[in-house]
Amino acid sequence: MSQEHLAVYEVFVRSARGLDHKHVGSLHAESPEHALMYARDCYIRRSEGVSIWVVESKNITASQDNDTENFVEPMDDKPYRHATHYVLPDSVNNM
Amino acid sequence: MRSQDEEALLEEFERKIEAEEKIEPTDWMPEAYRKNLIRQMSQHAHSEVIGMQPEGNWITRAPSLRRKAVLLAKVQDEGGHGLYLYSATETLGISRSEMIEALQTGVAKYASIFNYPTLTWADVGAIGWLVDGAAIVNQISLQRTSYGPYSRAMIRICKEESFHQRQGYEIMYQLAKGSPEQKKMAQDAMNRFWWPSLMMFGPHDSESAHSGQSMKWKIKRQSNDELRQKFIDQTVPQIEVLGLEMPDPEIKWNEERGHYDSGEINWEEFYQVINGSGPCNHQRIKHHVKAHEEGEWVREAVRAYRAKQAAKKENAA
Questions:
Q1: CB contacts < 8 Å between A and B, how many?
Q2: Which of A53, B44, B130, B257 could form a cystine bridge with B197, CB 3.0-4.6 A?
Q3: Are the Cβ atoms of A82 and B170 closer than 8 angstroms?
């Protein structure tokens, strides 16, 4: 059986207790349990993490790059959502 | 009596707390820790959501389009923060509907400050400046809480909230430097929101029912009185810049302590409002129930969509 017929898993690693799991890459595996073992061997050989999540790639729903205009840009014209939008006197500007 | 296994688990739990390691949802934790967190975190979530009401009251009457857009964005943030906190609380094994039920039946509390009415536009400024200011002092401290999902929610919320306090202060500053009527309005709003803001930090350490255990387990990292003092110390100079009169005549710099002294809070009022007799308690819950019931058609549509999709899938197979 060729590698390509195996499911693809996305790998998320938590580098230290208390932090978020971050996406680090992907791999092929024949089951979620095996994906976890391969991820351990592949992604935390140098103690890069204390916890791993694996998720089969097909189970991830992602936004589309070619739809960025409609999906993300409406947020660009709302500068008042940022603290820097408000001009305060110097003496209280550390608020 | 505890079994040997449980002794070992408790020892490991306490080692993590001692070593400043976060507790994660899949870790073993004492029931009392779980219960204490559910109480505090759900109360925090409820406060975000109920807190949308007093400010939402002014969205249609904001004095300019800019102020309206800002206020909408702020109230939208509060709803989002409620969602982060409900989701984080659900990791402890309680459901969203159980939490909503507890809120609506009065079993769960929310910050007592939201039981005060917003009478003038200046109140929107005072809330952003003082109420969000007090919440930020508390939430910065909670970024270091021992429960991982709570800590991460606090970090995200603090980042997003940085504009809330500044927009409030900007409103206050404009009014305080405006016409005599506007200045009076700012003074009045500050006077009314000052004491309830101080009450947000909870009872004195000596009177606080949950503080001891919460500090020991590092759910809370600083005491109510420490955080309240921090808020007073950072806010007094901001009042001076506004050129308003102090809301408490006893506020005075204490050289020896290196802090501002201030007058005693009216604790009778605090307990009255907490226990349901504040000016707007009834209205806040009534509105929440109404909004929840009127939203039932949305939840129904979600369920219908899910059933339809499932049927489609079955037919295709």
A1: 53
A2: B130
A3: no
Nearest CA in chain A to B76: A81
ipTM for this model: 0.81
Distances (CA, A) of A63 to A27, A55, A70, A71, B55: 21, 17, 11, 8, 33
Per-residue pLDDT at B286: 97
pLDDT digits (tens, 9 = 90+) for B208-233: 877 788 899 999 999 999 999 999 99
Given an 8 Å threshold on Cβ–Cβ distance, is B241 in contact with A92? Answer: yes
SS (H, E, C) A5-72: HCEEEEEEEECCCCCCEEEEEEEEECCHHHHHHHHHHHHCCCCCCCEEEEEEHHHCCCCCHHHHHHHC
Q: Which residue of B has its CA nearest to A20?
A: B152
Share of chain B above pLDDT 90, in %: 91
Mean pLDDT by runs of 10 across the 95 residues of chain A is 80 93 95 96 91 96 82 81 92 90
3-state helix, strand, coil in chain B (%, to 5): 70, 5, 25
